[in-house]
Amino acid sequence: MFRQYLTRMLCAVIWTVALALGAFSSASAQVGATGSLGGVVQDPSGAALPGVTVTVKSDAGVERTVQTDNNGRWLVPVLPTGIYQISYRRDGFKELDRKGVEVEAAVPRTVDVKLETGAVTETITITEDVPLQVVTTTAATFRQINAEQLTKVPTSTRSFTHLLSTEAGVAADLPPVSVNGNGNVSPAVNGTRTTSTSLQFNGIDATNITSNEGSLDGNISPAPETLSEVKLQTSLYDASTGRSGGGNFQLVTKSGTNEFHGAAYHYLQNEIFNANDFFFNRDGIDRPRARRNEGGFTIGGPVLKDRLFFFGGYQRTQASTAFVPTASSLTVLPQFLQIIGSDRSAARIAAAVNQLNPGLNLLPSEISPVALNLLNRRNPVTGGFLIPTPGPNARLIGTDSGTGLPGLPTNVTGNNVTVTFTNSATGTTRNVNTGSAGGTRGNPMLQERIVQPANFTQDQVNSRLDWQIAGNNRLSGVFFFADFPGFDPFTSPTNLASPATIRRADQNYSVAISDVHTFSPTLINEFRFGYFRLRNSRALDTPLLVQPDEVARTFNATSPQAFNPASIFDSGTNSFRLPRIVTRASNFSINGPNDAFNKRLQNTYSLFNTLTWVKGDQTFRFGGEYKRHFFDTDLPEEQGLEFEKLENFTQFLAGRVTEADTQYGFTQKNFRFFDVSLFAAADWRITNNFTLNYGVRYEYFGTPSEKRGRFGNFYPDLVTDPNNIITGFVVPSNAKPTGFAAIDTSIDRSVRANSRSTINDDRNNFAPRVGFAWTPFNDGKFVVRGGYGFFYDRPSAAFINTVFSNYPFLREIEVTAPAGNVPFTTAFSQQDPNRPFFQFLTGLPAQGIPGLRVVRTAGATGTYTIRDGTGVTRQADGSLNPIDPATGQPFLGNVAETFEFRAVDRRLRTPYIQQWNLGVQYELRRDWIVEARYIGTKGTKLLQALILNPVFDLNDPSTPDLIYERFNQAYVAAGSPNGPLNPGATARQRGMGRAFGFPNVAFPVGDPRRTMDLNVANTAGSVLPFEARGFYLGLNIPEAVLLTSSASSIYHSLQLSTQQRFNFNESYGGLSYFAAYTWSKSIDDISADPGSTAGNARPDTPNVGFVASGNPRNLRANRGPSDFDRTHRFSATAVYDFPTFGLTNRFVKGWAFSTFIQVQSGAPFSIFSGEPEISAVGTNGANFTSLRLGSGGLFRPGFGRPNLAPGATISDLRRRGPEPTAQFFNPAALASPLGDHGNLGRNILRGAFQKRVDFSLAKNTSITERVGIEFRWDIFNAFNNVNFALPGNDLQDPGDFGTITNTIGGPRIMQFSLKVRF
Length: 1318
Known about the structure:
Elements: H1 2-20, E1 34-42, E2 53-58, E3 63-67, E4 73-80, E5 82-89, E6 95-103, E7 108-110, E8 113-114, E9 123-127, E10 141-146, H2 147-152, H3 160-164, E11 170-171, E12 188-189, E13 198-201, E14 204-205, E15 227-235, E16 248-253, E17 261-269, H4 278-282, E18 290-304, E19 308-321, E20 328-334, H5 336-340, H6 346-356, H7 369-376, E21 395-399, E22 418-422, E23 429-433, E24 444-451, E25 454-470, E26 473-483, E27 486-488, E28 502-520, E29 523-540, H8 548-554, H9 560-563, E30 580-583, E31 589-590, E32 599-615, E33 618-634, E34 642-646, H10 649-653, E35 656-657, E36 659-665, E37 668-687, E38 690-701, E39 705-706, E40 713-714, E41 729-731, H11 741-748, E42 751-752, E43 766-774, E44 782-792, E45 810-815, E46 822-823, H12 839-842, E47 853-856, E48 864-867, E49 899-904, E50 912-925, E51 928-947, H13 961-973, H14 987-991, H15 1008-1011, E52 1035-1065, E53 1069-1084, E54 1120-1121, E55 1128-1137, E56 1151-1160, E57 1164-1165, E58 1169-1170, H16 1182-1185, H17 1187-1190, E59 1199-1200, E60 1203-1204, H18 1210-1214, E61 1230-1231, E62 1245-1246, ...
Parallel strand pairs: 1-7, 1-8, 6-9, 13-16, 30-34, 41-42, 49-52
Antiparallel strand pairs: 1-4, 2-3, 2-5, 5-6, 10-15, 11-12, 13-14, 15-16, 17-18, 17-65, 18-19, 19-25, 20-24, 21-24, 22-23, 25-26, 25-27, 26-28, 27-28, 28-29, 29-32, 30-31, 32-33, 33-37, 34-36, 35-46, 36-45, 37-38, 37-39, 38-43, 40-41, 43-44, 44-50, 47-48, 50-51, 51-52, 52-53, 53-54, 53-55, 55-56, ...
C-alpha cells in the first residue's frame, strides 16, 4: 500500500510541476545510443550572448545548427556518438571552432565558451584533447570507456565486461585469465541480482532472458576493435531507460567516416609461457594445454562522402584450455582398478576387490554383466576406459562402506545398504550388508583430479551503415553475427570419472536499425527497430552419441524399448546416450548429464520511438517501446535415463542401484510473451548551475503463454481434499491434445484457466524518477548530484525452462523398489508409458485400483509408504510387492514418485528496485576528477521459489489433524498391530503410541521426544515418510516448488573514484588512470532468480536459485549477506606512455605500459546439507545426531543448515586449520539440530580474499603517416597470485567438506599480439 501511495504521489507532484511551468530555456537529453552537446556562450566580460549560431559537425556527416537563447544557452540533442567540431559565429565576434569534442552515449556533454570581440572573418581554432570533464546536468552515475581505452588496458578475455567491472558498485568474481567462451562476466550492480542487468546493443535490447545466472552469460561480446564505446549506467538513469533495476550496459558499434580507417590484428596465448594452476601442481599434473588464437580485421570509410558510410569487422577465435572449471573433474575411483590395470576380466576384478575388501568374498560369476560392460567400455573422447584406472597421484580418502580403514572416513560415496548378488553360473542369490555389521571393510576409494582441455571457436561479424539521407534525416543500420560454440568435457558439478563433452551451440544474430529525423532544432524523433536472436542450446557431443541398440546391449537389455520405455515419447538424439550413473554423495559419475540435451532459443523483436522536444529551460522526451519475445525450450532431462544414489561400488558390481529415473511425456515448449513500456522524461535546467531530471516510466511485462498450451500450473486454493490433489492442476485455456492418450486424458481431467498463461497480469507498474545536479560554485568543476527512483525488473525467463516437468504434460518415473536393489537392466520393467498420467494420483476405482495413499506393512514394526495408483504388483526385479495386510495380496501400486512440479503463483507481481544516491564530483584541476557518493537500493517483490508442500513435525500441535489421520487409517488397514486406536477427539490423540509416537533415543533425557517422538513410526525406530507429512499428498518435497514474488534485498554503499590524465610530455611521458573503491553491504533472502542452467548436470538439484534454503515456514531466517556481497572492492586501470626525451627515433617513440588491478573481499557462503533425509532413528540415534542427516533431515529441505555447537561462536567456526585448503573453517564448531532446522545463519562465512594484477607492455611504431603497427606483451595475474574458490560446503559430500579444491581466475598467463592500423 505504501509503495502504491508513494508512486501516485510522486507522479502527481512531478507532472503538476511540469504542466505548471512556462519559462523554458536549454537542457540535456539522454536517449539510448545517442548523446547531446550543449553549453553557454558568453562575451569576454562573462555576460550571456544570445543569438550565436552554433553548428556541430562530425566527420561521419552529421551536422546540426542551433542558436543560443537569451541566457546564452544552446543544446543539440540526439547526436550519434563520435568526435565533433563545434563552430560559434556571431557578428562582432571572432568565429570559434572547437575540434575533437566527444559525444558519448546517454551522456549530456557541456561545452561552455567565451567569444572574443573582433571581425567575424577572424577564426580561432581550438583542437580538443577530449579532456576529462565533470558532468553537471544529470543525476545518473555511469562509467564510459572509449575505443582507445578498450584496447589499451590488458584484458585476458577481451570482453567489454572486464573493464566495466572496475566501476564502483559493481560486484563480480575476478575475471578469468583463460576461457573457452567469450569471457563475459555477469556482475551484480549496486546490490541487484545478476539477472537485473540489461544490455543494449546500438540502442536495442540484447539481454539474455533465458539464464538465471546472469543477463550477460552466454551473450554477445563484440570485438573491442569494432566498438566506439561501451558504457555502464549504475544508478538513476532516466525514465527513457528501463527493463531492469540493476546496471545498464550499452555497446555502440563504430561508424565509418570520410576517411578510410581499419586494422588487422592477432592475439596469441600458449601454455609454454604460462604458470601452472596451484592444485594441478599439488596433484602432480603437468602444466596443461592453454592456447588461444584470436585474429581479425576492421575497415570503415565513405561510400559517398558526407552521405553514406560503412564500417565492418570480422574476428575468429580458436581456444583450447584446461584452466577453466569445465576442463577438470575431481572424482573418486575404487582402488581395485589401480591394481588390475588393463585386465578387466571378471576373475581379475574379483581377485582385486577381495584383496582390498576382505570379507566380501566376491565370485567372478557374481559380477553383473552390466558392471563388466561399463568397466570395459572405452571413452571416445580420451580413448581410455570410461571408468579410468586411477593414476599414481590419486589420493586414498577412505572407503565406500563397511568397517573402513584406520583414521579414514567410511561411506564416502553414500549409505550402507543390503545388496543382492546373483550368481550367473548357478542362478543363486546372496545378500550382502555393506555396513559394518556385514563384516566387510568396504572398497578403498581414491580421489583424483582428471584434466581434459576445453575447446572454443568463434566467428563474428560486426557491420554498420550510416546514411545521411538529408540534412534533417539520418538512417543507421547495424548487423552483428556470432557463432561461438564451446565444448565442456566436464559439466558442473565436476564429478565425472571421464569426459562427457557437452557442445554449447551458442549463436547470435542482432539487427539494430535507427532513424533520426530532425523536424527542427528543437524537435527530433528517433525510431529504432531491433531483432535479437540468441541460441544457448546444449547437446552431448557427436562422438559420445550412442545408438539405442548399443545402449540396450551395454545394459544387457532385450531391446531399447524394454530398457527405456520413455523412448516412445522422444526417439530422437535426445535419448542417444548412455544413462548417467552417479553416487549419492555426487562425487563420482559417468556418462553425459541428465540435461545433456537442452534447447534454448530466444528471439526478441523490438520497436522503440522517442520524441525529443527542447522547449526553453526544459528538454522533454516522450516515447515507448514494444518487445515481442519468442522463447523455445526443450529440456528432456531424464528421458535418457539416470541411475542415481549409487551407494557404493559393491552395489555397482552387483548391477544394482538405489534409484532409477526416467520421464514420460513432452518437454518441447514454445513460449510467447511481450513487453510494453511508455515513458515521459524531462531535464529542466532551472538555472545555469542547477538541473532537475524527472520523469515516469510505465512497464508492462507480459506473462508467458505456450503456443500449444503446454504449461501446467497448480492452484492450491482449488484443492478441497489434500489427499486427492487432482483438482489443483491447471492448464491454459489453449491446451491442445498431444496425440498421446496417456497425456490427453490427463489434460481433460485438469482445470482450464481463463487465460493462456495461468498467471494474472500485473499492470500497476508506474516508475517515477527524480534527480538533480547542482554546481554550487557555478564554475562547472564541482557538482552535487542525487535522486530517487523506481525501476521495474523484467523477470528472467529461466524459470519457465524448468516447467518441462509439470503434469499433465510430463511424468517423472522414479523406481526405488526393491530398496537398494533396483537392477540396471530391468529398472523400468513394471512402468507402462501408455498408462494415463492421472492414474498415478486417482487410480482406477471402478477396476478396484486405489489411488495415491499411505499404506503400512504388517506387524508391530511395520513401516509406512506412499503407493501410487498404477496397480502394479511387482518390483523392478520382478519380485512381488510386499503383502498388504488388509488383503493378504501384494500391495497395488509402485512406491510412489510424488510429483516434481514448478508452480507459479498466479498472483505473481513484478519485482522492482528503489534506487537512491547522493554524491559529489570535483575537478581538482584539468584532467583530474574525484568523486564520492552514497548509493543505496532496495529490492521488493523479488522472485524466489518456495517449497510448495513443506513437511510438518508431528510433535508440533499446530500440525493439521488430517496428516495424523492418514497414518491412523493406514494403521487400522494393517490390522492395528499395536492395539486399537486410543479414544480421543483428534486424530493426533487417537494415534499416539499406536499408529505413531515411539521412543527416540537421539534426544536427551528430559526431552519428551525421548520417550515419545510422534515422527517415529514404530518401536524399531522407523521415521514416518516425510512426503506423507506434507499437507498435499502427492507433491514432491522439496522439488515441488512455487515461484513467488516474496523476496527482498537492501544495499548500502560508499563509492569513491578518481580518474586523472597527464598529457604527454617528452620528459615525463603521459599517464592516465582510473581507480574505484567500494565499501558496501548487500543483504537479501535469496540472491538468484529461480531457474535451471543448461548443462549443469542436475537442473532439478538444489542450486543457488532452485529453492529458498532452510525452514520454509521461517523465511526470515534466510536473511543474510547476498551471495555477491563484497565488503571491500578496489579496482584500477592505468596507462603510462614512456617519455621520448626529445628523440624522434621510431624505436624510441611509442612505448607504453598499462595495468589492471583488482582486490576484493571473498564472497559469502553457507554451510548446508543438500536434501537431507532421515528414514530411521538409527543406532543410538545416529541418524539424528549425524551432521549430514540431522541438519534438517526430518523435513528434507533443499538446503538444510546445522546448528552451532553448544558454547561455540561464529568466530570459532571461522577458525581455519594450519593449511586453509585442507580446513578452511572449523567443523568442530558445528552440531546436528537433531533433524530440525539449524540455527546457523545463511552466508555467515566468507571465502578467501582475492587479488590480481595484470601488466602490459606495448610498442607503437609509425610505418608511414597513415600506417602504424603495434606489438603488445600482456601478463595476466602477473604475480601468479593464488585466488582460492569457495570451500566445499555441502555436508552430503564428506570428502570435500571444508576443503578448497579449486582456484578462481587462474594462474599467470601471457599473451602476445600484433596489430596494424591505417
